[in-house]
Structures are given as structure tokens and as C-alpha cells.
Amino acid sequence: MTGVAYEIMREERGDTPVVAISLQDAQLVLEFVNTRSIVGSPEHLQDAESMKGWLRANRLIREDDLVTPADVAYAEEVRAALVALLLDHVERRGHGVEEAEQRLARAAVLHPVAPRIGVDSGQWIPLQGGVAGFFGTILAAAATAGSNGSWKRLKACKNRACYLGFLDKTKNSSAMYCSSSCSSQMASRAYRIRQAQARAAEGNAMTP
Length: 208
What we know:
The protein is 49% helix and 10% strand. The protein has 208 residues and is mostly helical. The protein has a single domain (12-177), classed as Jann2411-like fold (Orthogonal Bundle). The chain has a two-stranded antiparallel sheet with strand order 1-2. Strand 1 and strand 2 form a beta hairpin. The radius of gyration is 20 Å and the shape is globular. The protein starts with 11 loop residues before the first strand and ends with a helix.
């Protein structure tokens, strides 16, 4: 299957919304996790208005679809769970992973998708419309990325001041930072910490 993506083109087949595919699953996941305020970028889940603006700008919902404060809170939970998993692809500490997996599993039950098979391709179609359909789409995108081998290459920058979601394009999937700038920042920070620890050790050694 080609998976899900997120330029919406709706047809009416009874009460079931139909979503067509145009962007790759990995990119959709990254677009969503990077709705956070990162390095001066705006927070797109600040309130119902900003969330609707982001969804509409990316053609993820229709103009008349309603976005509520409850939708915003729920989107933040789903986003945080995805960020936790992407961060573990870098840190591999297991911190918060189980909780994130359980949260996404519960969300998947609430926002089901169904396969739609054609002669040339297949895709997953949300069984709900509006914002609920978007949640189904983003979860299906993450699952499809997991099944096609790209999931482990989706990472959150190890620089805690950043946490930008990025696609690791290195041959051995060893990237830990989204950019050389973040890598340099973390290297400088680690150096300062080592220097401070060394000075503290010297001071303790000189204390009678």
C-alpha cells in the first residue's frame, strides 16, 4: 500500500469521507510533530483557531469542519506521544515510551481507518470526517511509516532546546541532531560541563 497522506480530496460515498493521498507518510508525521514552537516558529496548537488554521492551510480538513478546545488538547497529547517515540529513536532510553505507545493505541481505536484497494495502489481511509478523520490519518501515516522501514529514521533532535522532528538520511541511520548547528551547540555544552566538573574536582582535591 502507498499509505496515507494529507491533501484532502473528498468524494461522497454514503456517509464515509474519502481522503486521497498526495504526500508521503513520513513527511506528514514530521509536519505534525513540528507544529510545536521550535526555534522561534509559531505554536500551531495554541488554540482552536490556530489549529484550524494549520489544518486548513495543509488541506487536512474542510472550511466548515469544527475545531474545539478539546480537539486541541487531544492533538497535543497525540503529538507529545509521537515526539516521545521519535526522541527514543535517538536516545534509546525507553523513557515515556510505554505510555506513549499506549496513548497512541487508544487513539487508534477511537479513530479507525479502513483499507481501500485499487488496481494500481492501495491506501488507508479514515472512517470519520473532520478533525477525527485527521487523527485517523496521522495515526495511519505513522503506522505505515513503521511498516515500510522509514519509521526508525524519523527522529526528534537530541538538542533539548530544539526537539525538531527530522528524517535521518545517513547511510547507517546514526544522526542524532537535525542540523550541524544543534550538533555544535550540544558539543559546546558538553565541553562546558566537562570543564566545570574538572574544576570542581580540582577544588575538592585541594580542600584539606
